[in-house]
Specification:
By secondary structure, the protein is an alpha/beta fold. Helices cover 47% and strands 14% of the residues. Belongs to the short-chain dehydrogenases/reductases (SDR) family.
Length: 262
Amino acid sequence: MELGIKGKRALVLASSRGLGRGIAVALAREGADVLLCGRKTDELSANCAAINAEGNGRASFARADLFESDVVETLVAAVAEKLGGLDILVNNSGGPTPGSSEDMTAELLETYFNAMVLRLITLTNRFVPQMKEQRWGRILTVASSGVIEPIPGLALSNTLRPALAGWSKTLANEVAQYGVTSNLLLPGSIFTDRLKSLDAAAAQRSGKSVDEVKAESEQAIPARRYGTVEEFAATAAFLCSQPASYVTGSIIRCDGGAARSV
């Protein structure tokens, strides 16, 4: 399928590794010009070199940390300098520390709310006027399957990410008439470093080996396996595409059928 995004300008948050990097690679392979960002410039530089070596879309990067108060201004300036405008925004953030509801102190809540919710919304609001004016835009927010089915041991994530669902749907209704879409993409168990760390934490809590935890987790998924970054990124690329112009205000799962709700 021709995705119709050759030459489109995309910003992918938290793209030094994992799902963010996968999405940046997938968009670039469709011919988009991609701006990667994250905290680790060595990884970002290597990612850009690999993308540019493929010769499809172009890639550049900017150091940006969602935990820093000036990150929105940093990214707005980077987009202006390196892309000259924006067509596609992929909101993505690292997951918060695992823990129970009782572990959620006021300080933790405020810190992660700022990084995972407030700054994503603030950044999006800086680019929406341009997307409306050009009458084309894609806003894709990567959240978590905890939005529809809370994940044990991830109380912070289960608390904060659902806020993005309400916001994304509200935004979608406001901007649809301008040719701008806003969707939420929920990963299930996608085999990334983040999932490896969660499995390790679960193994420590349960006294089982990491392999045992992984095997049990896979058996609970109807697909009987973890997903790949490439599978997830392909779904994201479609939602950022021209053919997906009538898909908006939606919550899309990429979880191998793991969520039990309809």
